[in-house]
DNA sequence: CAAGACTCCTGTCAGC
DNA sequence: TGCTGACAGGAGTCTT
């Protein structure tokens, strides 16, 4: 399930192999993802040269002079290279083929929660992108921001930091981990947390994401390997997926609750 | 506006 | 062993 570190790793892995190449053909076998793939994608992007890639939240932008391909991996999507003419499997929904007859870029997504869109405008002005909060690893995401946005809010802090309008890229796993590291109870009201504690939380979110990205870097080569599998991280998770097991800090049994249809695991002793 | 429920989809796994 | 059903999960959208 790609979270921001996985998306960043994907981008770093594929960008060097895409820039400067011209699209020759785009095969769309399954246009129904989260949304219908933009019908203009193939006619508008074919023949275009890829100039660079960028990321905003979990959205990847693949830029050309004629427009930008917007890709979201959802929770089961992946982008990777396959040797030309590799027959597609059932969940291989899109192939991007190039004029140089070198490996194709393939999009696979079993659960189809991902998205592939196309815009001729500045992609940062796209409806899905322009309302997003700051990047978690940038200086724009800081205590002042979080504190002012949390003021008066009654939502649980976990739901709050997973809101992409507040800050992007904090998925369920890392929200759980960051709150554990910060010692904050996930159900605590966002507006009822001191500035000092929010400052700790900001640092913990940055630390958790940064560490995950660094680990992702070690598997970069897998992205362009022959198997086409995007090797996931061997994260050591403190709480996520460990409900019922002992807290690594105090030994007490970790508790699981549900918040906003998401599983939350925390330590009732360490997190207050 | 804020908060919470609902929705898409399919692989995985528990239970029978 | 095989089948059924619950569940997970990003994030936009709908409902209250």
Explain what this protein looks like in three dimensions:
There is one protein chain. It contains 6 helices and 10 strands. It has helices spanning 4-14, 41-45, 143-150, 157-161, 172-182, 195-217; strands spanning 23-28, 50-56, 59-64, 67-72, 78-82, 92-98, 104-108, 115-119, 255-259, 262-266. The strands form 3 sheets. A 4-stranded antiparallel sheet has the order 1-6-7-5. The chain has a 4-stranded antiparallel sheet with strand order 2-3-4-8. A hairpin with a 2-residue loop joins strand 3 (59-64) and strand 4. Mean pLDDT is 90; it is low at 217-234. The protein binds a DNA duplex (16 and 16 nucleotides) through residues 1-3, 32-35, 58, 72-76, 91, 109-114, 128, 153-155, 159, 162-164, 171-172, 260-263.
